[in-house]
């Protein structure tokens, strides 16, 4: 019987009990990940959580000490060459030379990847333009700002469009404007069909970019899901109420405190108030508690113009999951 090829996998990354040990540190301590192809997947965790170690194993730069990992169905150890042909890791495979200009770097890397001189020039100009670096194309990279440097790193890593791009903390240390530019680039890259695995310490970054998020802490996945699932698993939210009459706000606050047992916050707007909902307080979920609060307000004769139940922020999710403040 001829050996069957591995089944076509809709997963860009699949790991089972992946482990990496450095001395006595279990940097990655049994991680299971399933990254759907064609999406941005966020790996969120504080410094030292094991993000870079996990990414390096997936990119075949580090050998796992236990468990297994597949990239597009190919084992990262047994089939490392096949994996390498489909992935790129910003700042690792594509190292930018500080003494060369933006153009020189990209043309050189393009030539190393086997492009003709003309093709390398074309691709380089196209990427510099797309990343807002045309004006700096002739300048040495050592004179680039932090944001420009991060952008040329990403440009270098997608000279050949990879099927899976690892972005390891692509915006750490950047100012808000540069972060936004990098976010736009990530969105453009994924729109071209590349799967992006992004690690970050920033909750808002995962929230902005990723479809699914794994929260990791001390080498372990402590939560995984869509943004909505993650927030829902914490089971709390915030009720935002707008009243018709500012004069009814005191009464509304008393009703909300009574039904939700929650802290009520009077917003600067005289007709608005916010109450937190703890989904674990009773057997009722946050939505049911909010619905009950709304009917109690009506019973008390309070006229409500607008009523919304919002989900908690990712900061609150991290706090609830780890019992400690998030890294931001
Ligand atoms: N080459 C190494 N040698 C020894 N310890 C390491 C090495 N690389 C990482 N570590 C340790 O492994 C843990 C996870 O590190 P890392 O994967 O870099 O985390 P993150 O990228 O989430 O900040 C940390 O405790 C770190 O000190
Ligand atoms: Mg790291």
Automatic annotation (TrEMBL):
The protein, known as: ABC-type xenobiotic transporter
Cellular component, GO annotation: plasma membrane
Domain of life: Bacteria
Subcellular location: Cell membrane
Keywords associated with the record: Antibiotic resistance, ATP-binding, Cell membrane, Membrane, Nucleotide-binding, Translocase, Transport
Alphabetized SUPFAM superfamilies for the sequence: P-loop containing nucleoside triphosphate hydrolases (SSF52540)
Lineage of producing organism: Bacteria, Bacillati, Actinomycetota, Actinomycetes, Kitasatosporales
Membrane topology: Peripheral membrane protein
Segments crossing the lipid bilayer: none
Residues in ABC transporter domain copies: 13-243
Organism: Streptomyces thermolilacinus SPC6
Single Gene Ontology MF annotation: ATP binding
Gene3D superfamilies: P-loop containing nucleotide triphosphate hydrolases
PROSITE patterns registered for this protein in UniProt: ABC_TRANSPORTER_1 (PS00211), ABC_TRANSPORTER_2 (PS50893)
InterPro entries: AAA+_ATPase, ABC_transporter-like_ATP-bd, ABC_transporter-like_CS, ABC_transporter_ATP-binding, DrrA, P-loop_NTPase
Keyword presence, Translocase: yes
Top EC class, one word: translocase
Biological processes, Gene Ontology terms: daunorubicin transport; doxorubicin transport; response to antibiotic
